[in-house]
Structures are given as structure tokens and as C-alpha cells.
Amino acid sequence: PGSYISKVYVKVQNPLEASGCYMERVHSKVRRAKEGLVDMVAQGLSGEKPVALVESEQMLFVGSSLTGFGEVVLEGGQVIRLQAPQDGRSYILVPSDYRSFMDRHEASANLWKTLTAVTGLTGATLLAGIVCNYFGKQDDRSR
């Protein structure tokens, strides 16, 4: 809505291949796992015993707006197709806009930078303390 070309359509090719949490959960149910003779034999062979089964249904509501990161292909004059890139890069659909997506990833990168700096400083401090103790003990022995 509000674009300069109002008769252009975007077709999302294989949206289930895309990563990102763009669908909303509409149904979720936890059921106990069945216990029968065949199930017991399968459990004995695999070594796994299922306790419960989770049923979940997700869907994208009509009229939802998404931001897509992928390869854009022009199909004819009025149809644009968004698909997974041919070179193997990520294909992402997100329910937010571009700026909030980038802000979320920048915040995550800043968190990892801070943790790296704190870990590096802690390691350097411990190493300096060990080296000072080692050379301090050797200096005491030489007196």
C-alpha cells in the first residue's frame, strides 16, 4: 500500500524453506505417547522412549506484512518473485521491518563483543597474576 506502482505483486517462492519466525501459532496440544507392542519393540531397538507428542499448527494470516531477505526475480511486468538465493545464502522472512531486524542483530553482536572483552580481560588478569606469583616465588628463592 502506498507504493508508486500499485499493480506489482510479490510472490514468495517456497516460504517454508525460509528461516525466521514469521508464522503465528494457532494450535498447540501435548498428547501422551502411545504404548503398544510395536512401539515397545521400536523403543527397545532405538533406545529412545517418547514421553509425549507435541502437535503444533502455525499459519501466516492473510494481509500480514513481512520483510524478506533473498533473491528477487522479475517475472513478467507485474510479478516479482522472492526466492532462496542460488549461491546458498540464507533465505529469511521476518514479521518486522528492515530496521528492527538490523537493530536486533546489532544488539546481539554488541552483546558478544562485550562478553568477548570481559572474558579477554579476565583471562589476561589471571595470566598476569600467575606470572607475577611464579616470578615472585623465584625471586624469593634466589635471596
> What is the radius of gyration?
28 Å
**Which structural category fits the helices and strands?**
alpha+beta
- Low-confidence stretches are none
Number of strands: 7
Keywords: Membrane, Metal-binding, Transferase, Transmembrane, Transmembrane helix, Ubl conjugation pathway, Zinc, Zinc-finger
Pfam family, one: GIDE
Domain E3 Ubiquitin ligase MUL1-like: 8-125
Enzyme class: transferase
Written account of the structure:
It is a multi-pass membrane protein. The protein is an alpha+beta fold and 143 residues long. The protein has two helices and seven strands, in the order ββαβββββα. A three-stranded mixed β-sheet has the order 1-6-5, with no helix packed on it. Strand 5 (71-75) and strand 6 (79-83) form a beta hairpin. The longest helix has 45 residues, at 98-142. The protein is flat and about 85 Å long. The model has no long low-confidence stretch (mean pLDDT 84).
